[in-house]
Automatic annotation (TrEMBL):
InterPro entries membership: AAA+_ATPase, ABC_transporter-like_ATP-bd, ABC_Transporter_VariousFunc, P-loop_NTPase
Name assigned to this protein: ABC transporter ATP-binding protein
Domain ABC transporter: 5-225
Keyword ATP-binding: yes
Signal peptide: none
Organism: Streptomyces lucensis JCM 4490
Length: 291
């Protein structure tokens, strides 16, 4: 059975007297689970992912369990002395594949992400999008037990983004764990087994699909067909929804996601009528949701 990765009372700061980026973090990542991590910019999401990938060591606390791990950063160092195929083949052999098997796997992953034509191109000459495809392929070529994705969809074209979502589903179906951060709230919407939010240097588990408030909230009053259900794209991102009268709903959403909600309502079939948009007070997170 694949090992579970666990963070216990983990804290991380940079420098002896630097401010704590994270502190008191407890997190268990079980095999076969898909975990989403959310939070505003600068809250420590990338620091948390680097701890999970064991690229950084905690300043305090313990990290236990050693699943075979692969990591995709938002910015991939593309100035490497390899062609795309050569780089992936090299990593495949590091993961234990024979050179022939590694070369076949390299070709397969490049084709899947629409980069097969660039296999013989030196890494330093690849575009940002093509370089990101190689970055994703290098993480998947060794069939990791834990896949850590930090804004890995950034720079990918639509086809490659869809392919990465399929690869995530394949990893979890095979018993691997995947932890990801992405700025788009619709990314893998409805798929994660658990969602966490990084808030004030700690980690809040989002219970029952309700995400803790991270910043201001927006209250939207919308009218749909009587007895109609909230459009799926809208239901995935709202913090709360209340039907105050037949067909009239009061929806609370993070202000940063309000445009996504309005677009989902207005492009629904049939479209919903937006009767009002206003700021809403942020609720205090339930302390019982801390893992």
């Amino acid at each position: 059975m694949q090992p579970e990765l666990r963070l216990t009372a983990v804290g991380r700061r940079y420098g002896i007297r630097g401010p704590w980026v994270l502190r008191g973090v407890d997190l268990a990542v079980a095999p076969g689970t898909l975990v989403r991590v959310e939070g505003a910019n600068g809250t420590g999401k990338s620091t948390l992912l680097r701890l999970l990938a064991r690229l950084d060591a905690p300043t305090e606390g313990r990290v236990t369990g050693r699943p075979r791990t692969a990591y995709v950063p938002e910015r991939f160092p593309s100035a490497l002395p390899f062609t795309a195929v050569g780089y992936l083949t090299h990593l495949g052999t590091v993961h234990g594949l024979s050179r022939a098997s590694a070369a076949r796997a390299a070709d397969t992953w490049l084709e899947r992400f629409g980069a097969g034509a660039y296999g013989g191109t030196p890494m330093e000459r690849l575009s940002k999008g093509s370089s990101q495809k190689v970055a994703v392929a290098q993480a998947l070529i060794g069939e990791p037990e834990l896949l850590v994705l930090d804004e890995a969809w950034t720079g990918l074209d639509a086809g490659a983004r869809d392919e990465l979502e399929r690869a995530v589903a394949e990893r979890t179906a095979a018993g691997g764990a995947v932890v990801f951060v992405d700025h788009d709230p619709r990314r893998l919407a409805g798929a994660p087994d658990v969602t966490y939010a990084v808030l004030d240097g700690g980690l809040e588990r989002c219970a029952d699909g309700v995400r803790p408030a991270a910043g201001p909230l927006t209250l939207v009053t919308a009218q749909g067909p009587p007895g109609g259900r909230l459009p799926a794209d809208a239901a995935r991102i709202v913090s709360s929804a209340e039907e105050t009268a037949p067909g009239t709903h009061r929806l609370t959403v993070r202000a940063s996601h309000s445009d996504v909600l309005l677009r989902a309502l207005l492009t629904a079939v049939p479209p919903w009528h937006v009767a009002g948009v206003e700021s809403a007070a942020a609720p205090h997170p339930d302390p019982g949701t801390r893992p």
